[in-house]
Amino acid sequence: MKIDIGDFTASNDDPLVLIGGPCALESEEIALEVGRELKRITNELGIGYVFKSSFDKANRSSVESYRGPGLEKGLEILDSVRSELDVPVLTDIHTSEQAQPVSEVVDVIQIPAFLCRQTDLIVEAARTGVPLNIKKGQFLSAEGMTNVVEKAKSKGNEDVMLCERGAMFGYNNLVADMRNLEVMKQTGQPVVFDATHSVQRPGSRGDSTGGNREFAFPLARAATAVGIAGLFMEAHPEPESAKSDSATQIPLEDAEKTLRAVKAIDEQVKN
């Protein structure tokens, strides 16, 4: 299965694609800074690039946590990134009503892991005809994603990517099972590995999620060695001061080193 996004193709056999950007939309300036640098790097390496950021983080640990600028302002920023940088963009939705307005701005709609079994949400997203990136829930087996794909395809949308982002390993911990990548590839859909959410420690800080960003790079290399369509990776100019996922986003300055390494692995695997 091949999915056309912008001027490149995402499939498990084609060159690796990057989905990347700051976790939450904090400002247009930060979005453009991150997007511009990731575009520079991916252009040099010949990697297809999709900018990612969220207008609303609706599943934060605390009611006091920063969620984002909201739908209207968030779509304005995403549209600005899309037009100014000339890159496809991706964002996630949390309610069925958001599907249509979001589809008018973005190139890929993402279904969050916690919501991957929400039938109405997936069906409405699929109805837009926009390609989907559906994250596998931390609670769900890789085999269970077959039903998720069927929900989307029931509305005629074949352009579905499946994203691995770790599985619950006891409380406040995740483990990345690389077997899941192979299992989800059996659906015939492009498979993406989320390197930064896979190293989260959910709720480990009490009122927020912690994590270990130092493991994102080795996990990205391991997943790429399986032979996948894309890598999902969040980056920030100053991760420690990020308003969301401060423990897991990689420093923007480290992105080039990471992408050069996974590019080399991807070429070896697919050649």
UniProtKB/TrEMBL annotation:
Query: Organism, per UniProt?
Result: Haloferax chudinovii
Kindly give the PANTHER family that the UniProt entry links to this protein.
Answer: PHOSPHO-2-DEHYDRO-3-DEOXYHEPTONATE ALDOLASE
Top EC category: transferase
SUPFAM superfamilies assigned to the protein according to its UniProt record, in alphabetical order: Aldolase (SSF51569)
Among HAMAP family, the record links this protein to: KDO8P_synth (MF_00056)
Keyword Transferase: yes or no? yes
Select a single GO molecular function from the record's annotations and give it.
3-deoxy-8-phosphooctulonate synthase activity
Swiss-Prot/TrEMBL catalytic activity: D-arabinose 5-phosphate + phosphoenolpyruvate + H2O = 3-deoxy-alpha-D-manno-2-octulosonate-8-phosphate + phosphate
Q: What keywords are assigned to this protein? A: Cytoplasm, Transferase
Q: What is this protein called?
A: 3-deoxy-8-phosphooctulonate synthase
Compartment annotation: Cytoplasm
Q: Report the GO terms under cellular component.
A: cytoplasm
Q: What is the lineage of its organism?
A: Archaea, Methanobacteriati, Methanobacteriota, Stenosarchaea group, Halobacteria
Cite the EC number: 2.5.1.55
Report the sequence similarity comment from the record: Belongs to the KdsA family.
Residue ranges constituting the DAHP synthetase I/KDSA domain according to the UniProt record: 7-270
Q: Which domain of life is it from?
A: Archaea
What InterPro entries does the entry give?
Answer: Aldolase_TIM (IPR013785), DAHP1/KDSA (IPR006218), KDO8P_synthase (IPR006269)
